[in-house]
């Protein structure tokens, strides 16, 4: 069975009562997994010297990692290979590894899923994932750019519509089509309607490849597919011609290639212009295993009220949606350097308290000065999308950009506010204003005799709590390496690389849904958006903003999406195992952050959902009876969805982490010590003793305890793994992170953790296709040569089972 279904949230709904607008957000995410894209560790030494590259001083490194990556790609694909080094490549301070992202081009057009992530350290290629297209370049009779000239006219539409009519051909499995192979009477009516557009279709033979579909047709067809419900979709089809004619198409320039690009304005059901750019995208070869074919496609970026899609519509068959990622991820499928004069203080449930049942509120202050040099309430005026009335600009010194201080929940990392109306606008939504003393202290009054609006009565507290939690997450992830150059979320980046203008927009008590939460992650340089909902699962109703685990889960989508496949690629965790891990990491971090030195099993979202096992099937537990998930669990019915897959991944990571805790102990804080006045970060009790390289330079510090080390390895692993990783790739990336950071000291424990839940070295997926399916096998053994397992194949491996 191929999971190409629109993942409406109601599937699997059972135990929870679901409110009127409850999680009915429609979200499409599907596409093929590339047969060749897996994490490879070169067996021999592949380094600058082997490419004949000379040493040159490059940011303190002896070799330019981009040059090494380019030579490496040429060694794989020949000197004629067409590619570009993506601008979101960076050197990671924690591991010293350069993450170089190489994007393939064919005929000067980008292959949007043709990427090689080359991980380079000291001039050496230590690992890479490769999803380049390996066949020959297609040729066309028609120059794609001719499509845009002359500007959009009637004849043009006709051409496109004609091609639409030729498109009801065999469609490779796994793709969504506007009308099925066997059209219903309604489909036939729609086709007739298109024909009535008076376009000349006679000359078009089925399958003729050079016909390019008009981008506005592709975009409108996508909207028909993605429309929030069937009625909207039917209405669009009924007035198809009229809709098409009202679209305004404005040519723009592609930032990365010479391919034609346009902006399409006035598209129904969108919240801004749709961007369309000609690109290639790969699909599995229908007959040849491990081979892909190139499809010319319109690469669409589509902002909608409840979704932000990156979609690929075939540019030669107007009804084919090839792949799509929704940058918005839901919480779950309902089972149903300037110390401030005035320190802001917040009366909130402090970091580590998961929800109001875990402790009382207290007045706290503080932010991490390394992660947030200006604190949480200030930014240069040029970085603010809107200048708060209450902000008092500093008098600028000469050309200096004035630093604005805000007395509301508005700052460099997070914009938090109510969104009771569930609208898309957010800039002028209400935020608590703490005034000049900066005391954010509001009442918490959950009414026993609830009304639907009960949580509204403590709205200012909710916004404050959300602002606090989201900023803490920004700061803690920063300290483990989710910094400016790796694509974190900040308005202003302090000249430290990456793109700014992307603080997280946090909507508290968002009126667009109930009993859920979601997060949108566009590429670096565009704001992330978190929407937190009220839960009607208990009386009085509960506010998801007050459950830190849910906020952490959501923000972690931003972390994993930006770190996997590079900051500028938001399409790497869309579906399948990759999409599932996108959910799993969030649960893993939420659970890790709330856990204490006394071991305990934890549920996810149990307070908000008012359900002891929370919003997943099982609690996270070391006990096989309490949580029986293993790798093979993914074969079970009900486990095709990303949340169920994620639960298995989070459970496996929980085991791995606890093995590390058993060896290295538990750190009561996950926050590393603050930097000293001279910028040096002290080891404190948090890090292992510092190590120095041959030249006496201090190497990056490594957390010493099991929980803090697990956080580091998982985050560093995300940077190493390729786009669309499998469980195997993510496991191997964590092992490589340990190799880089500790010299592989924890190899045995990490393998034991993975093997305990079936993800040993011989675990396999047989008969899987790029569109899914297949049968998984658990493996509980350990690799040869690890944990003292004998290398000698004649030894009985049974003895070494865990
Ligand atoms: C395809 O790749 C898989 C996994 O690497 C391999 O087992 C299989 O033999 C390959 N098939 C062909 C036809 O190359
Ligand atoms: C909160 O404080 C009250 C009294 O001050 C105490 O009775 C209660 O147990 C505390 N709640 C929690 C969850 O710690
Ligand atoms: C704004 O905050 C910065 C530090 O965050 C401080 O140096 C500056 O004096 C403040 N400006 C005003 C006008 O309060
Ligand atoms: C929340 O705070 C704002 C600004 O500080 C204030 O105007 C508003 O009345 C408060 N709302 C509630 C419900 O207390
Ligand atoms: C809630 O309402 C019930 C009946 O409607 C009433 O008996 C009870 O006293 C109320 N409780 C509170 C705390 O107001
Ligand atoms: C595992 O959980 C089951 C069910 O709760 C319990 O009976 C058993 O004692 C637990 N095992 C261990 C080792 O704690
Ligand atoms: C920074 O200060 C600390 C403590 O004063 C000192 O031990 C360390 O050597 C200093 N580091 C540098 C790079 O100056």
TrEMBL record:
- Write down how the cofactor binds this protein: Binds 1 zinc ion per subunit.
What positions does the domain FTP occupy?
A: 82-132
One GO biological process term is: proteolysis
Needed co-factor(s): Zn(2+)
A GO cellular component term found in this entry reads:
extracellular space
Q: Name one Pfam family in it.
A: Peptidase_M36
- According to the lineage, what is the superkingdom? Eukaryota
Q: Which interval of the chain is the signal sequence?
A: 1-20
Q: Which residues form a coiled coil?
A: none
Q: Catalytic residues? A: 554
Question: What InterPro entries does this protein's entry cite?
Answer: FTP_domain (IPR011096), Fungal_virulence_M36 (IPR050371), Peptidase_M36 (IPR001842), Peptidase_M4/M1_CTD_sf (IPR027268)
Principal subcellular localization: secreted
Alphabetized SUPFAM superfamilies for the sequence: Metalloproteases ('zincins'), catalytic domain
Q: Mark out the compositionally biased spans (Acidic residues).
A: 789-802
Give the Gene Ontology MF terms in alphabetical order: metalloendopeptidase activity; zinc ion binding
Tell me its EC number(s), please: 3.4.24.-
Q: Identify the residues that bind Zn(2+).
A: 330, 553, 557, 583
Q: Where in the cell is it found?
A: Secreted
Sorted alphabetically, the keyword list is: Hydrolase, Metal-binding, Metalloprotease, Protease, Secreted, Signal, Zinc, Zymogen
Q: Which segments carry the region annotation Disordered? A: 761-802
| Family membership noted in the UniProt record | Belongs to the peptidase M36 family.
What PANTHER family does UniProt report for this protein, alphabetically? EXTRACELLULAR METALLOPROTEINASE MEP
Mind telling me what this protein is named? Answer: Extracellular metalloproteinase
Species this chain originates from: Calocera viscosa (strain TUFC12733)
């Amino acid at each position: 069975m191929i999971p190409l279904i629109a993942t409406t949230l109601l599937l699997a709904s059972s135990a929870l009562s679901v409110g009127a607008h409850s999680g009915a957000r429609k979200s499409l995410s599907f596409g093929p997994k590339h047969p060749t894209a897996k994490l490879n560790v070169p067996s021999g030494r592949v380094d600058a010297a082997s490419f004949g590259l000379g040493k040159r001083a490059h940011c303190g490194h002896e070799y330019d990692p981009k040059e090494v990556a380019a030579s490496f790609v040429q060694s794989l694909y020949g000197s004629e290979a067409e590619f570009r080094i993506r601008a979101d490549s960076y050197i990671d301070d924690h591991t010293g590894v350069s993450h170089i992202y190489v994007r393939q081009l064919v005929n000067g057009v980008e292959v949007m899923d043709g990427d090689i992530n080359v991980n380079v350290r000291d001039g050496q290629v230590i690992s890479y994932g490769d999803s380049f297209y390996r066949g020959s370049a297609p040729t066309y009779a028609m120059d794609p750019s001719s499509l845009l000239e002359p500007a959009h006219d009637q004849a043009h539409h006709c051409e496109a519509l004609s091609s639409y009519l030729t498109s009801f051909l065999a469609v490779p499995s796994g793709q969504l089509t506007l009308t099925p192979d066997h059209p219903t009477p309604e489909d036939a009516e729609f086709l007739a309607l298109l024909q009535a557009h008076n376009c000349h279709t006679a000359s078009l033979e089925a399958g003729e490849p050079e016909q390019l579909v008009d981008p506005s047709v592709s975009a409108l067809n996508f909207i028909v597919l993605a429309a929030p419900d069937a009625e909207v979709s039917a209405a669009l089809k009924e007035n198809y011609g009229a809709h098409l004619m009202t679209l305004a198409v404005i040519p723009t320039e592609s930032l990365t290639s010479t391919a034609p690009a346009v902006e399409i304005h006035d598209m129904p059901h969108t919240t801004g212009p749709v961007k369309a750019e000609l690109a290639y995208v790969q699909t599995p070869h229908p007959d040849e295993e491990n081979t892909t074919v190139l499809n010319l496609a319109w690469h669409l970026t589509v902002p909608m009220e409840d979704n932000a899609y990156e979609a690929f519509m075939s540019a030669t068959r107007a009804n084919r949606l090839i792949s799509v990622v929704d940058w918005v991820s839901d919480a779950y499928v309902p089972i149903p350097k300037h110390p401030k004069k005035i320190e802001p203080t917040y009366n909130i449930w402090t970091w580590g308290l998961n929800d109001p049942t875990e402790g009382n509120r207290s007045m706290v202050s503080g932010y991490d000065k390394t992660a947030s040099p200006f604190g949480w309430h200030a930014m240069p005026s040029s970085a603010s999308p809107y200048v708060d009335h209450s902000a008092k600009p500093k008098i600028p010194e000469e050309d200096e950009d004035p630093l604005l201080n805000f007395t509301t929940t508005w700052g460099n990392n997070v914009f938090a506010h109510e969104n009771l109306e569930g609208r898309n606008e957010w800039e002028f939504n209400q935020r608590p204003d703490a005034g000049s003393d900066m005391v954010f202290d509001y009442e918490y009054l959950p009414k026993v005799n609830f009304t639907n609006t009960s949580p509204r009565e403590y709205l200012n507290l909710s916004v404050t709590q959300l602002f606090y939690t989201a900023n803490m997450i920004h700061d803690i992830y920063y300290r483990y390496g989710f910094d400016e150059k790796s694509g974190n979320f900040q308005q202003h980046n302090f000249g430290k690389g990456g793109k700014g203008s992307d603080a997280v927009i946090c909507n508290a008590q968002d009126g667009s849904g109930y009993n859920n939460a979601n997060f949108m992650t566009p590429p670096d340089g565009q704001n992330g958006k978190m929407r937190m909902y009220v839960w009607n699962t208990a009386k009085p109703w509960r506010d998801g903003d007050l459950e830190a685990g849910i906020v952490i889960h959501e923000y972690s989508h931003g972390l994993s999406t930006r770190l996997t496949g590079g900051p500028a690629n938001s399409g790497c965790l869309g579906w399948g195992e990759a999409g599932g891990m996108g959910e799993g990491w969030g649960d893993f971090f939420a659970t890790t952050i709330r856990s204490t030195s006394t071991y305990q099993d934890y549920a996810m979202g149990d307070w908000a959902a008012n359900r002891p096992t929370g919003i997943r099937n099982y609690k996270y537990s070391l006990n096989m009876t309490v949580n029986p998930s293993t790798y093979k669990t993914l074969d079970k019915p009900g486990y095709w969805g990303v949340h169920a897959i994620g639960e298995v991944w989070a459970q496996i990571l929980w085991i791995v982490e606890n093995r590390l805790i058993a060896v290295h102990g538990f750190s009561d804080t996950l926050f590393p010590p603050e930097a000293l006045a001279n910028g040096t970060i002290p080891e404190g009790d948090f890090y292992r003793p510092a190590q120095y390289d041959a030249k006496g330079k201090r190497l990056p510090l490594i957390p010493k305890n099991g929980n803090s080390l697990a956080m580091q390895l998982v985050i560093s692993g995300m940077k190493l793994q390729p786009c669309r990783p499998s469980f195997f790739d993510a496991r191997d990336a964590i092992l490589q992170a340990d190799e880089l950071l500790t010299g592989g000291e924890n190899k045995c424990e990490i393998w034991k953790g993975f093997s305990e839940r079936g993800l040993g070295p011989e675990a396999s997926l047989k008969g899987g296709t790029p569109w899914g399916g297949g049968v998984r096998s658990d493996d509980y053994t350990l690799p040869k040569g690890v944990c003292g397992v004998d290398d000698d194949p004649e030894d009985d491996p049974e003895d070494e089972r865990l």
